[in-house]
Amino acid sequence: MKKIMGLLLTVVLVMGLFVGCGSKNKETEPTGGKDNNQVSDEGKDSTEDVSTDKPKVGVTIYKFDDNFMTYTRNAMTSAAEGNAELIMNDSQNNQSVQNDQVDVMISKGVDSLVINLVDPGAAPTIADKAKAAGIPVIFINKEYPDGTDKIDYDKSWYVGTQSKESGDIQGKLVAEAWKEHPEWDRNGDGKMQYVMIMGEPGHPDAEARTKYSVEYIKSEGIEVDELEKQTGMWDATKGKELMTTWLGKEGDKIEMVLCNNDGMALGVVEALKADGYFSDDKFMPVVGVDAIPEALDLIQGDIMLGTVLNDPLNQGRVSIEMAINAALDKDVLEGLDFQLDETKAVRIPYQPITKDNLGIAKEAYGME
Length: 368
Prior knowledge:
This protein is an alpha/beta fold. 49% of the residues lie in helices and 15% in strands.
């Protein structure tokens, strides 16, 4: 009996020790967890001081795999370095996705927004979200068709280009080259037979480049015949597919290829190469817009005729610097050598690019 009582006493002591150790661990872990997940008033104030110096800027890009917007996005990242925290989103070319991303960023407490719209017509909806939260918003590259000044929010601005200008410049570049190369008129009928690959339907840049490039060519006294015109959605693969189809249908009737952007022009060049162009003196003039480095290489190699510089570095930089200024309640243009026009827009100028002035575009892309 004594042995049994002694054994029971030992078990009780051991269990007591185990429970005591367990209680100690249980007490330490939750306390530590609470301390890690809660911020004291002092700590919270310190965090707010840091965020005042480096505001949080929420960014959405209509789709990451767009050639031009990739360079613009990189410029944004460089401009924000040491000056702001960026929250970057790929809207995957879906306006509903973009709307949800804006809601999430607002809930995370961003101090300003930079929006590359999927649908330019959605600008008022995004502005209403920003206005309700008291957050300034900078639209970039895709402009609300009625003008940013028509949006009912005083803390909304636009950074981009004047769409018509890119069409005019592309048309001028083509007209001058056509007059210098009468051999491009293959059938000798005195007319330019061309095909046009357009950007996204309804996009202000696509609409303007399609219209004004041809209007400028005709204003120079050049007669034209439009053989084909389709949207390539800014995409190189679609540009290649369209050009391959047209070569099979139109053959050497095509005398000029006009592209709303360089991305699609790259695809066109691939299709032309597969058809034997750019070797044995078989040439097809191709023009684009944006002056991305890949296109500059093709111009250097006498493959593309030319392009139009659509400056991504300044668009990206200016949009972020404006967003930082607005977040800190400063003049939105403080420290910037730009002005707002009557539509509350900062206009980044276009420039024609050929082999004769590649250095301008290379400098704009930080290649020199």
